[in-house]
Structures are given as structure tokens and as C-alpha cells.
Amino acid sequence: MNTPGENERISKTAMEILSVLHTGKTMDEIFDAIFAELKKIIPYDRIGLSLITDDGKITEHKVKSDAPIELGKGYSCQLSYTTLGTVLSGSGEIVEKYSHTIVGKRRVIHDLAEYVREKGRVTPYNQQLLHEGVRSSLAIPLFLGGKPAGFLFFSSRRPNVYTREHLCGDYDVCMHLLEAIRPHLALAVDKGVTITTLRETNQKLNELLKMKDDFLSIASHDLRSPLTTIIGYCRFVAGKTEMTEAQRKMVDAIGNSAGHLLLLVDDMLTLAKANAGEMSLNLQNSAPGDVLEQSILAMAFNAHNKRVEIKHFRAARREGLLDSSKMFQVFNNLIGNAIKFSYADGEIEIRETLTDDQYFFSVRDNGPGISEDDQKKLFGRFVQVGDDAAKKHMGTGLGLMICRMMVEKHGGKIWVESEIGKGATFSFTIPLGKTE
After folding, report:
1. What residues form DSSP beta bridges with 364?
2. In what order do the strands lie in the sheet with 358-364?
3. CATH 3.40.47.10 holds for 280-436
């Protein structure tokens, strides 16, 4: 029967240990704190946590020692090579000259040197333990879901430490404390392994994401120059060279494909920069309408090849602080999509208006339209909406997300209005003053 003072010591230490379990720390951090709390009540020169693996091995996961050791973290051997199996299965109590086992609860070795000699267990592992000064030990089995998960080890350089005679009144305190916290230690192992695995997985994922972004950035830069050259030569040949209709169609097809690929490359490059936190604005005084006209000129080749007429309702020109290259990409994406989804021999309508401090842009196509459900997710990453026929026209699913990022970076907002069978209108506004 514990005294009130002993019960208070058990409760206080148990509460300290339980509080550690509810932190988001790794298993190493959790057991560092637990080891420190346990030493307040249970004497040891060396303490360790060993885990039982699925293939029947016992592996030292964490060891803390007052002196240098070799049998530390990472050491592994088959559980069957040890005598620890006796504490995991069966029932009852096994009392021997140099050891005491209560099955399912604990095993105490009073004197390792005498135990090894009597049992004839002169193994390299036991020899190394003796060389490192271990004389007595206390092993506590940990179970998860009724299955053995590992052991908590206490060791001392002195024999007979974990006996009632040596610990006196503290013996019951130690054993009651271990029984009280044993289930929680097993949960700590489970939680710690999960947290550590998640952190390691996240680290690997972050490394893979960085590799992907680096690749996209390098590949995009290397692809832009040849694509720009191809598009330039296609336009030169189409405008200056006499060709048959079949030849002209081939040149147009090459130019269209290169132009489409250039848009995708620009999107990937922008996304890579955004993921790396490098997408900043180069703000200068520019008129968004002038940038729009450059985009319309760039998209005219695609519109001509699809026989889509571009109607442009201009607004007065007014300068504001904006990043012209990024706005050019926004215009290209929105106008390019309108051309792409418009039916042949159709038209797209581009409107721009000015208020005192805002610029408004919209582009309407005569395509198949977009459902209400699809409109809600349209500006997300890698989103492709509509039926399979419509998706054949689409690229990476990044363009509209990038438009949203860039418009919002300028302090504006972007939206879509559409009905099935009645085309779609994409609009955005940006302030013409200073942006954050």
C-alpha cells in the first residue's frame, strides 16, 4: 500500500509524462522529456527505448547513457536471440537466482555477469553490455493493440539495483509508476513514429517539389527562345512568301502549335516562380489598354487561323502602376482561351472601361459555355472543366489560376459569367493607383 506522499510522487510524475505526450514533438523529443521525468523516481545510468519490427527484430531506437557506449541507437538483432521473449508470452511469475520476470509486466536482471555465466548466454551483445559496465537492468514491455511494440530499458553499473532491498520504499513507487504510465508510453511510441514518419515524408515531398520547380524553371527558360524563333519565322514566312494553300495551312499549324506551347511554358514558368516565392511585381507607369493592344496583336495570328473575329471596344488611355509583362500574360491567357473555345467563324468581344481609379476588362466568346458547378472551381490549380470534347482544347489547367494570382497581386479581382450554350465572359478589374 502506497503512502499519500508516494501516491503524490507517482501522480505528479505521471502527469508530467502525460503532458509531454500531447505535444507535436518527434519521438526523440518526447522520450528525452520522459527519460528526464523517470530519472526523478527510477535510478539508471543508462535508459533506452527498443522497438520490435514486423520482421521480428528488436532495434534500439533511442539510448541515453551517462558514459560513452557502442550499443546505441540503430543496433538491431533478432528478438529470438534474446531472453526477452519470456516477458512477452505466457503468464505468471518466473523467479530465478539472478533474474525475476513477471510476464507481460517486467523483467529484472539482478546481476548481468552472474546471469550470463549461469545461463551460458555468452553472446557478443551481452559481452559488450558487460564491457560498457551494465550490471543490472529492468525491462518494461510495451504493447499496442495487444501486440508487443517494444521495451523500455533501465540499466545500472551496480548489481541488484532494481530490487526491493535496494530501492526500499521507492520500489513500490517505481513499479506502480511504471504500471500507470506503461500504456501511455506505448501510445507515445505509436504517436512518435507517426509524427517522425510524417515529418520525414514531408521533407522528402518538399525536396521533390523543389526539384520539380527547378526543372520547370530551367526547362521553361530553355524552351522559350526556340519557340519564339519558330513563331517569328512562321509569321515572316506567312506574310512574305508565296505558298500554296496546303503549304500555308502547314505553316499556320506550326505557328499555332508553337504559340500554344509558348503559353503553356509561360504558365509553368510563372507557377514555378510562385511556388518558390519569387513572383514579385515590377511596377511601372503603364496604360493597361496599351498592353491589351499588344496582346490582341499577338493573338491575331491564332484568331485568323481559326477564322474568329476579334471585336475590340477601346477605352481612353490612362496610366497606372502595373507590371506590364504580367498583365500581358493575363490578357494572352484570357484572349487565347476565348479564341480556343469559340466556334469557327465566330467572334470574341473585348471591352475595356475606366472609372476614376479602376480599369475594367472583359472578353466574351461564343463557345459552349460553362456550368455553374464548374465556374466555382475554374480558377483553381490544374482544373479542366466541361465535357471530354471541350477538354481536348485545354492545356495544363494552370492559365486561369495564374490569371487570378496576377490580378490579385495587382490588388484586383477576376470572375466569370456564363450559361451553357451561351458562351462565357471573363472579366477583371485592377486599381490604377498604388498596389500593396
Report:
1. 349, 425
2. 309-313, 347-354, 358-364, 424-431, 413-418
3. no
Fold of the 4-201 domain: Beta-Lactamase (3.30.450)
Cell 479542366 found at = 384
- Joined together, the cell numbers standing for residue 109 give 536482471
Cα–Cα dist 339/306, whole Å: 8
> How far apart are the C-alpha atoms of 27 and 61, rounded to whole Å?
9
Gap between the Cα atoms of 138 and 299, Å rounded: 78
What's this model's pTM, rounded to 2 decimal places?
A: 0.49
Q: Which residues contact 13 (CB under 8 A, 6 or more apart)?
A: 37, 38, 40, 41, 177
* Ordered strands of the 99-102 beta sheet: 76-78, 57-65, 46-52, 147-156, 136-144, 106-109, 99-102, 93-95
Q: Is pLDDT of 384 > 70?
A: no
Domain residue extents for the chain: 4-201, 280-436
Highest averaged pLDDT of the listed ranges 63-72, 353-362, 385-394: 353-362
Asked if residue 265 lies in contact with residue 224, where contact means CB atoms within 8 angstroms, the answer is yes
Q: The cell 506574310 sits on which residue?
A: 239
Q: Cα separations (Å) of 91 from 101, 130, 142, 186?
A: 10, 29, 16, 20
> Could you tell me what percent of the chain has a pLDDT over 70?
90
Length reported for the chain: 436
Q: 73-106 pLDDT, tens per residue?
A: 778 888 887 878 888 877 788 888 888 888 888 8
